[in-house]
Amino acid sequence: MDTLIQADIFFFITAIAVVVLSIGAGIVIYYLVRILRRIDEISAKVQGETDEIVRDVKDFRETMRSEGIKVKTVLDMFLGFIKKAKNVKQKKVISKLAKLKSDLIK
């Protein structure tokens, strides 16, 4: 009789554990499905943006082919200004260093 009561207690505890684990697994699956749906939405947005970027690059390439000389001229002029400004700054720094060096030597 004692073993029959122990078996009933074991099956009762096992049934409760199975119910709790099933509820936990259901909650995990619910949140997993929500996460996967969000990932699907994000990947759809990324795909759309990627398609737009590809279109923009194609348009840019066509523009560069048709108006490449104009853009290259403007870009060269802009880069020339940057190089001149950079050289002037370097010359100023070098002259200041030389002056400090001569002051320290005296």
Mean pLDDT: 81
Low-confidence stretches: none
The helix-and-strand class reads mainly alpha
In N-to-C order, the SSE pattern is H
Number of beta-strand segments: 0
Question: Helix share of residues?
Answer: over 70%
Major β-sheet profile: none
The proportion of strand residues reads under 5%
Computed Rg? 37 Å
Question: How does this model look, in words?
Answer:
The structure is a single chain. The chain is mainly alpha-helical. It is 98% helix and 0% strand. It contains one helix and no strands. The protein has one helix spanning 2-105. The protein starts with a helix and ends with a helix.
Tags for this model:
106 residues; mainly alpha; 98% helix; 0% strand
Question: What's the short story on this structure?
Answer:
This protein is 98% helix and 0% strand. It has one helix at residues 2-105.
